[in-house]
Specification:
alpha+beta, nine-stranded mixed β-sheet, six-stranded mixed β-sheet, 24 strands, binds flavin-adenine dinucleotide
């Protein structure tokens, strides 16, 4: 046995790091928290993904003392343009354009590079008393009435009262807990890279709906943008084989000429796209958070935001229970968390699936129907405001951290 604790979090990526920091602060550093991550701290800092953080996620990172580190590098999204055209069209006319702000002219979304977000979270957790970090792999666990025994690589063991799996979409712990999933593969691959452009983006994010899948242009600092591009699988594999000039030509065809000449400005990476939903969010003394709970299509850039909403709700449920002198693995606290997150998780995932199915095809009939639908949204400012507020994570029962209050 190498340690006893109140809470063990497995997975030291975005969800796990944010949860460790949030629980420690909410419980005034009185809980013993252990964070286990199998990779060395710097290993995944090369991820070229950039994240569209909602205003709610930003508020939470402010409350956790992480935003100050990110602020100089975070790019506000002032407006969003949406187009819907065939790949060979030379011009991609804007179908709908949003002013992406919520009350008080606050941007509804901020773009943050994944490597910066992770290093800001790592730095904050490193300075948090009450959190110990172990770099090792969790192999199995067993829950009993009094706690959970966790087997680590190298025949070591941890004992705790609540185990949280923030171990990503392939979550070995979710399987070990006997939680089943609903999952299917998308016939698409997600390609991500960074480009530099001649002219400034002026804070405009663009979503080109193309038959192979959505091609998103997310504004970054300087004259740079992150491309998050879903493409039909075989075509994506062929594009990924191209040399830099060929790869850039494929991007130029989709990007358009709005911002002048383009150049590659970062590595390319790709991910198979998969829908995954855990059938339950908890088991005795066990909870799922982040992609371990669900993995959604990147079409709306909401996967991490959903994970941070898990973190905010779980922190509130566990901290409220512990302040009453209850066990962190208290059944009622975990049931409250599961009830709180179930609806948002399922409805969001279903909406992103529907959007991808509706837009990622070459049917002229479907294009006419969806363009008529978008035309209605364009003409109704109230509906647009509602959609922006939804994407900002400000609707429904919002956990305290997402409102900018300590949990
Ligand atoms: C192409 C693409 C673009 C995206 N764009 C956006 C976007 O714009 N906005 C957005 O909100 N979301 C976006 N997402 C989704 C986002 O990337 C994920 O939701 C997020 O990375 C999930 O974070 P996580 O911390 O839950 O899991 P992960 O980042 O998967 O981390 C899991 C961690 O657990 C560790 N681990 C696993 N098993 C063990 C074990 N047994 N022992 C110890 N450690 C273990 C792993 O090493 C890993 O570090 C995108 C996803 C894709 C594929």
């Amino acid at each position: 046995m190498i340690g006893k604790s109140d809470i063990v979090i497995v997975g030291g990526s975005f969800a796990g790091l944010a949860l460790a920091r949030a629980l420690a602060l909410a419980l005034a550093h009185q809980a013993r928290i252990i964070l286990v991550e199998r990779q060395p701290a710097g290993a995944t800092l090369v991820d070229p993904r950039a994240y569209a953080l909602s205003a709610g996620s930003k508020r939470m990172l402010e409350t956790l003392g992480v935003w100050a580190d990110l602020a100089p590098h975070a790019e506000p999204v002032r407006a969003i343009d949406i187009t819907d055209s065939a790949l060979e069209h030379a011009i991609r006319p804007v179908l709908i354009s949003y002013d992406n702000s919520i009350a008080g002219n606050e941007p509804a979304t901020w773009i943050v590079e994944g490597a910066r977000l992770r290093s800001a979270l790592l730095a904050a957790v490193g300075q948090t008393s009450g959190v110990s970090q172990f770099q090792t792999e969790v192999q199995s666990f067993a829950a009993d009435g009094a706690g959970v025994s966790i087997a680590l690589a190298g025949d070591r063991e941890l004992r705790t009262r609540l185990l949280v799996a923030a171990d990503g979409r392939h979550s070995p712990l979710r399987d070990a807990a006997g939680i089943k999933t609903v999952r299917w593969s998308h016939p698409q691959i997600g390609i991500v890279t960074t480009v530099a452009h001649e002219r400034p983006h002026e804070g405009r994010a663009v979503q080109h709906f193309l038959p192979g899948g959505p091609f998103a242009i997310l504004p970054l600092g300087g004259n740079r943008s992150c491309i998050t591009w879903s493409e039909e699988r075989n075509r994506a594999l062929a594009i990924l084989q191209l040399d830099d000039a060929g790869f850039l030509a494929e991007i130029e065809q989709r990007f358009g000429h709005r911002l002048g000449a383009l150049a590659l400005a970062g590595p390319r990476a790709h991910w198979p796209l998969e829908f995954l939903m855990a059938r339950a969010l908890t088991a005795p003394r066990f909870a799922l958070a982040g992609d371990a709970a669900r993995s959604v299509h990147p079409i709306a850039g909401q996967g991490l935001n959903l994970g941070l909403r898990d973190v905010a709700a779980l922190t509130e449920c566990v901290a409220d229970a512990m302040r009453l002198g209850l066990d962190p693995g208290d059944d009622a606290a975990l049931e409250r968390y599961a009830r709180w997150r179930r609806f948002d998780s399922i409805t969001s995932a279903a909406a992103f699936e529907a959007l991808n199915t509706l837009f990622s095809n070459d049917s002229a009939l479907l294009r006419a129907a969806r363009d008529a639908g978008l035309g209605v949204v364009e003409r109704l400012p109230g509906l647009k405001r509602m959609l922006v507020s939804e994407a900002a994570g400000q609707t429904g029962e919002v956990p305290r951290l997402l409102r900018g209050e300590m949990a």
